[in-house]
Amino acid sequence: MLFRKYPTYCDRLRQDMAFLTSNGRLSEQLVDKIILQLNRVYPQILTNKEAEKFRNPKASLHSRLSNLLAHLQKEGDKPCQEFYRALQINAEQLYNNLPSRRILRIQISNNNCKAGKIERKGERGRETCPRLSTEPRAILHITRQQTQVCDVRCRR
Predict the structure, then answer these.
(1) Count of CB atoms within 10 A of residue 28's CB?
(2) Which domains does the chain show, CATH number per domain?
(3) Which among 40, 86, 90, 147 has most CB atoms closer than 10 A?
């Protein structure tokens, strides 16, 4: 049995669905940009017919977006990943505020803290985070290309 340290993109999309479909979160233009990017760059993810269905102005934005997210989840992890990539390119601020991104940051900080990779600024030695169980203690900077620990400090 494989052990997954972090959730799949489909799992993350399930977590973020309510956040993304809430009123005013995504504009009509932004949803259209994401659909067009998925259709043009990855036509195997969204065909022309599917893209037209999800861009239909007669249906409400909420229902179109809900249907799009459900469709991507049925297609598998790669389409969900490409949705996140399109969201990051077109709305980075929104992407950074997703609930699944916050949870992922906490998991990464906890793993680094448990592994003794937390370094206090101004000190040479590394030490573990003393109060890990109460709240996350590390500040992480997540880059676009990969997850990197750039400036991790143990807060007291």
Answers:
(1) 12
(2) 9-96 (1.10.533.10), 108-148 (no CATH)
(3) 86
Amino acid at 35: I
Stated pTM of the model: 0.66
Per-residue model confidence as pLDDT tens for the chain (156 residues)? 455 566 899 999 999 999 999 888 899 999 999 999 999 998 899 999 999 999 999 999 999 999 999 999 999 999 999 999 999 999 999 999 999 887 666 656 566 666 555 544 444 444 444 444 333 433 334 433 333 333 333 333
CA distances (Å), origin 105, targets 34, 108, 148: 24, 5, 11
